[in-house]
Each structure stands twice: as C-alpha cells, then as structure tokens.
C-alpha cells in the first residue's frame, strides 16, 4: 500500500496527541492540506463528539462517512452506533442482522453502557480505515492527553479478561498496527506556554516508557512573533520608566513590553521542550483569527520540509 | 463582577480543554470564599493545574485548606482532587451493604480492569463524590471542575448510564437467557449472537459481573435519581468556560447544546483570554509620538492595530454567542503575569467584565 519509510510523516497512520487548546486540529488540518497537495489521499479521523474539521475548513458537517472538507482532504468522525454496526457486520458478515442487533433496545442498552465496547469499536473502525486503500495517510485526532493514553493503554487493560475470541482479534490487530514502526507514528502537538509545556513533557515521558510505541514529531504551534530587537527593548523600558510615563502613548509602550515578555517566555519554553523532548521538531508561527489563512500558512511551512 | 447567585450551592464548570477551566474554577471558588462563603473546589483532573493555580504543592482526595489572601468574614476555601479508584470502591461498598458481596465485585476482573482506567468510571465516581459532598454541612458551595470536552458531558450522564446498564429487564433477559419462557427466548438468540460477536470468554465474564452487579442496582437507581434531581435543582449552576476566538466559540456552542439538551440550565458563560488588561486600550485623544520613539512608531502602531483587530473580532464573537443563547456572559483578561497564588488569582478574576449583549 505505502512504501515503508523512516520519515514519520510518510507512514500510513498518524496519531496526534496533546493538551486541548494547542491547535491540534489546526496542525492536523495543515498536514492533511499539505499531503493532499503532494498527491496523497489524507483522511482526518475525529474521535470526539465534536467536529473541528468542519469549522476549520468552513466545510460541510463531518459525519461517519468520509466527507471532502477541502480539495483532496477528507474527514470522518467515529460515531458509536455506525461503528458498532460495522464491527458486528465484520463478525456476522450479514449487515441487516448487524443493524438489527445494534438497534435491539435491550442489547443497545448493554452496548452503550458496557465498559470497553465504545473503545473497542473505535479501535476497530480506526483499523478498518487504516486498511482501506482509498486513504493514506489517515490522521487521527486524539482529543485530549487522557484520551490518548486511554487509547494506547486500552489493549493492556482489556488483555486481562479478553483471553480469546473476536474482540481479542480486534485488540491484537489494533495493537499490531500501533506497534508497527513502518506504518504508524504518534506525534505530540504543543504550544510554548509554561503550563502546557509541563504537561507535554509529562505526556512525552509516559509515551516514551511504552517501548512499543513509535513517536514521530513534536509540533510546536503558535510561536509568538518577536517584535523588538534588544536595543528597542531597552528603549521601551527606559521610556516607560522615564519620559513617557503617564503620556498618552504609554499604553502602546506597555503593549510592546508585554508582547516582548510573551515572546521571552515562549523562548524559555522552547528551550525546555528541546532539552527534555528528544524528537524531531517542527515549529509554526502564531497567526490571527482566520482559520483558512492559518491552515494555508502552516501547510506551506510543512511543504518546505519536503517530507513527501 | 463575576458572581454566583446567593442560593447557588453547586457550580459545574464545563467546556473543552485548554480554555483555562481549572484556573477559572479555582478563581471562582476563591471569589465566593472572599464573599464570605465556605467553598470546596473539586477537580477530576489528575494534572496538577488546580494545585498550581492555588499556589500549593499538591492536592489529594481529602480536601486541603487553602489560605485566603485577605480575611473574609467567615469565608473558607478548600480544594480536593478526586482519586477515582478509591471512590469507586467506596461506591460499591456502600451499594452492596454487606462486605462479602462488596468483595465479590471488588475482585471481579472486569471491575478491576475498568474502575481505574476508563473515563466512564471516573465520571461515575466523580458524580458520586459531588452528591456525597453536597450533604457535608461544612460547605455552602461546591465548584466542580469537569474534565475536558467529551468526558465533561460524560460526567453528567454517568449515573443514569450505569442504571440503564443494570436495567432489570436487560440483566434478567441476559442472565436468564437459557430459560425457556417465551419472553426470554429472544434473549437466548441474542446471547448466542453476542457470543459470536464478542466471544465466549467475554460473555461469560460479563455474565459473572452482571450477576454480582445486579444486586446493587436498586442502590444505584436511587442514587442516580437523586443526582439527576440535584443537577436540575435551582441551586445548581452550569458555567460554560470558553475562549473567545472563532474556533473556540464553535466548540463552546457544541458544549452549550449538550448542556441545554439535558434540560440543565446554562446560567453563565465565561470567555477567557478575551482581552489584554490595562494596556488593551491606547489613549483616546490623538497624540504624536516623541522624537525618541519616531523610529519605533510604525511597529508600535502595527502592534496596536493587530491587538485592536483581534479584540474586536473576539468581542463580536462573544456578543453573537450571547444573543444566540440568551445567557449572561463575562469576559476575562489574558493573565499577563503567572497565576500561581491566591492573590494573583483574586486580582485576575476581579478584572472580569460583563459582555454587553446587543440592544
């Protein structure tokens, strides 16, 4: 399907994890855009109840069936019921019966509430999409750090009582997929902000402990712009404390000082990330509000890396 | 000024991850404590954010006393981080009534595997703790920092879900599927199908688990009913925390729809990092930069223009949201200094401004 490769971004299954609010979906969307322009068939896979990709691309609502959200970029959302039907169909080979089972009120209650069913059918769906030749790469958006650890720890939790049987096969194939270095990469997305950096380093540590997982890139998003050189910084400080204090333009100087402090904090965070996280890094500059402009700029940054 | 109604006894902070929900929950609890109330802030988030925001070394399952930055008449602040495994075991013990029965569940492999791993059991344990704490006379108000996004909604559904899972008809139908009575014959067929779909060993383990859990159902159902009533009671407020940028607002809309769809009252919305305080507005009167700043002036103007544009966009996002949902909203500033203790936290929430809806 896809040639084995050492470059993580060329692998067929890409997982993205990181704390909420770091712009994970945006980075993922930019990668998908760049991949599509390089002639790939990227599919964004969302696991949560919310869809980010429809907002991001100002595209149609994203449901279970892959939808084209931007030229060459498709997105899908793994929803419980259709994923359950797909799983049962894979066992029984008869879709109408699978639908009957999934829609049976009593069994439905059991499935909705039974621990682990949700996670297993999600894993099954992801494995199914990964095996589908129409897509490559698939980019899986793991909603939060907890979600990611749950996803990667699930097989070991379930192994305790799933000794055999069809669900065990789902687990085994999902585990095999995650463990196969040539097919799968796990990327971490972060921003250079103190609280986020600490959590990112912890997450990296926990993922690193798992020798069977293959980490890809560290994406550092929203690097703030450096506005002033050192001489200008000194001037702003001196003016604020001296002649300009209380003047009508003083707030502008305070703003300049604030933005400088912000970029210095970010710089410190970047050094911390580079010191503690031993992964290839890709950085993206901070941008304003318009999501299409952000995607455009980020995907250009990725294209310059020429990974495809 | 951000303030909960005086009769509010329980506040759930909901929202997607990364918007500063934990910090806000801490600040809200602090603000209410400074108004003289005795407040407990509960977090289900194992990361250290709540402890960091309050400037203490760590938090455990037992509430810690948080010193207030200034004396408040009778006000107290306490904070705890839910340790869900201990709570889950406690729930089983209480529902089981006798120790032997509790031990059988606690030693069941399915129970052990899930009680500590999956979001759903965390959610149940968290709601259980909230309910229990409501009866604690030491607290006038409990502020709950829910986990991000999907689990934030899960937490609200957890008790009802568990009861549905243990629904007598379902369990009976499933456990007694080998009986020959006509109404159970469907169960036999379904169980055979389930064995094909899920495998023999899982169905056997599940049967064992359900047999033990079925005894606990009554207790769970009663508790779930109480939790539901509590969530819909007039003393309970839902506070949605969001960022004010366009993508953040879209996520906030999904969360708001989930809250409202459950018949819970969305009382307040808080938009975090909506503006930069103090330096967010330049002088009203026109001015000319002095000669010393002439070379820097174009940069200063550009910075100002970008900030103004960003804040105006955020403002129009917030106003549109408020008009759509008809809720009261506040905006909170970006913290220009790290929020690492209660004085900084109190000063930060003090800067909150109401978002004026369109006339």
Shape of chain A: elongated
Which segments of chain B are poorly predicted (pLDDT under 50) over 5 or more consecutive residues? none
Greatest interface and its residue counts? A-B, 76 and 83 residues
**Roughly what percent helix of chain A?**
40-55%
Amount of beta strand of chain B: 5-15%
Global geometry of chain B: elongated
Sheet bearing the most strands of chain B, described?
A: 9 strands, mixed
Structural class of chain B: alpha/beta
Portion of residues within helices of chain B: 40-55%
Largest sheet geometry of chain A: 8 strands, mixed
Q: What is the succession of H and E elements of chain A?
A: EHEHEEHHHHEHHEHEHHEH
Structural class estimated from helices and strands of chain A: alpha/beta
| Quaternary structure of the protein | heterodimer
Strand order of the largest sheet of chain B: 3-4-2-5-1-6-7-8-9
Name the average pLDDT of chain B: 81
- Give the number of DSSP strands of chain B: 9
Low-confidence region ranges of chain A? none
Order of helices and strands of chain B: EHEHEEHHHHEHHHHHEHEHEHE
Span between termini of chain A? 15 Å
Rg of chain B, Cα atoms, Å: 25 Å
Strand arrangement in the largest pleated sheet of chain A? 3-4-2-5-1-6-7-8
Q: How would you summarize this macromolecular structure in one to three sentences?
A:
The complex is a heterodimer of chains A (308) and B (359). In chain A, helix 3 crosses helix 4 (95-103), helix 3 (80-92) packs across helix 6 and helix 6 crosses helix 8 (166-179). In chain A, a hairpin with a 2-residue loop joins strand 3 (67-70) and strand 4.
Structural account:
- The complex is a heterodimer of chains A (308) and B (359).
- By secondary structure, chain A is an alpha/beta fold.
- In chain A, strand 6, helix 9 (194-209) and strand 7 form a beta-alpha-beta unit.
- Chain A has 12 helices and 8 strands.
- In chain A, 53% of the residues lie in helices and 14% in strands.
- In chain A, strands 3-4-2-5-1-6-7-8 form an 8-stranded mixed sheet, sandwiched between helices.
- Chain B has 359 residues and is of the alpha/beta class.
- Chain B is built from 14 helices and 9 strands.
- In chain B, strands 3-4-2-5-1-6-7-8-9 form a 9-stranded mixed sheet, with helices on both faces.
- In chain B, helix 13 links the parallel strand 7 and strand 8.
- The two termini of chain B are 20 Å apart.
- The interface between A and B is large, with 76 and 83 residues.
């Amino acid at each position: 399907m896809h040639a084995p490769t050492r470059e993580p971004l060329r692998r067929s299954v890409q997982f993205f994890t990181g704390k909420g609010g770091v712009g994970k979906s945006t980075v993922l969307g930019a990668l998908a855009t760049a991949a599509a322009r390089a002639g790939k068939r990227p599919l964004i896979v969302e696991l949560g109840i919310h869809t980010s990709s429809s907002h991001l691309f100002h595209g149609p609502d994203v449901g279970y069936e892959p939808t084209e959200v931007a030229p060459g970029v498709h997105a899908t959302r793994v929803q419980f019921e259709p994923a359950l039907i797909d799983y049962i169909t894979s066992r029984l080979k008869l879709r109408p019966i699978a639908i009957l089972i999934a829609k049976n009120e009593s069994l439905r209650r059991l499935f909705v509430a039974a621990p682990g069913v949700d996670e297993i059918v999600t894993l099954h769906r992801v494995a199914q999409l990964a095996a589908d030749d129409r897509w490559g790469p698939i980019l899986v958006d793991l909603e939060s750090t907890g979600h990611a650890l749950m996803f990667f720890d699930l097989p070991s939790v379930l192994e305790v009582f799933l000794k055999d049987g069809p669900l065990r096969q789902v687990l085994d194939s999902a585990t095999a997929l995650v463990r196969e270095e040539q097919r799968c990469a796990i990327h971490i997305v972060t921003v250079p902000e103190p609280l986020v950096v600490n959590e990112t380093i912890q997450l990296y540590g926990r993922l690193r402990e798992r020798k069977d997982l293959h980490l890809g890139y560290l994406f550092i998003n929203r690097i703030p712009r450096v506005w002033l050189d050192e001489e200008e910084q000194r001037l702003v400080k001196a003016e604020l404390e001296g002649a300009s204090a209380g003047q009508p333009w003083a707030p502008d100087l305070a703003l300049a000082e604030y933005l400088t402090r912000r970029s210095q904090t970010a710089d410190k965070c970047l050094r911390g990330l580079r010191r503690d996280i031993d992964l290839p890094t890709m950085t993206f500059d901070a941008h304003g509000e318009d999501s299409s402009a952000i995607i455009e700029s980020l995907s250009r940054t990725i294209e310059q890396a020429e990974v495809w | 000024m951000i303030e909960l109604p005086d009769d509010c006894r329980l506040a759930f902070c909901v929202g997607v991850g990364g918007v500063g929900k934990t910090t806000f929950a801490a600040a809200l609890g602090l603000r209410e404590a400074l108004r003289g109330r005795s407040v407990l802030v509960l977090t289900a988030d194992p990361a250290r954010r709540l402890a960091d925001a309050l400037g203490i070394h760590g938090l455990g399952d037992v509430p810690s006393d948080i010193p207030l930055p200034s004396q408040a008449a009778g006000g107290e602040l306490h904070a705890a981080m839910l340790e869900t495994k201990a709570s889950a075991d406690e729930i089983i013990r209480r529902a089981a009534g006798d120790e032997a029965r509790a031990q059988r569940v606690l030693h069941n492999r399915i129970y052990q595997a899930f009680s500590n791993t999956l979001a759903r059991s965390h959610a149940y344990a968290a709601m259980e703790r909230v309910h229990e704490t409501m009866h604690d006379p030491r607290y006038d108000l409990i502020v709950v920092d829910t986990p991000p996004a999907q689990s934030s909604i899960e937490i609200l559904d957890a008790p009802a879900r568990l009861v549905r899972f243990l629904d007598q008809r379902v369990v009976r139908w499933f456990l007694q599927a080998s009986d020959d009575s006509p109404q159970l014959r469907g169960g036999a067929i379904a169980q055979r199908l389930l064995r094909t779909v899920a495998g023999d060993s899982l169905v056997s383990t599940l049967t064992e688990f359900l047999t033990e859990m079925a005894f606990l159902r009554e207790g769970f159902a009663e508790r779930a009913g109480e939790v539901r009533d509590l969530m819909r009671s007039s003393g309970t407020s839902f506070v949605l925390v969001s960022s004010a940028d366009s993508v953040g607002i879209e996520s906030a809309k999904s969360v708001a729809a989930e809250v409202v769809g459950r018949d819970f009252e969305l009382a307040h919305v808080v938009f975090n990092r909506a503006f930069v305080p103090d330096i967010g507005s330049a002088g009203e009167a026109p001015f000319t930069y002095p000669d010393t700043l002439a070379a820097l002036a174009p940069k200063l103007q550009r910075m100002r223009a970008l900030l103004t544009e960003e804040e105006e966009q955020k403002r129009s996002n917030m106003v549109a949201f408020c008009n759509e949902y008809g809720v009261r909203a506040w905006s909170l500033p970006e913290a220009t200094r790290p929020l690492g203790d209660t004085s900084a936290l109190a000063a930060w929430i003090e800067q909150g401004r109401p978002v004026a809806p369109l006339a």
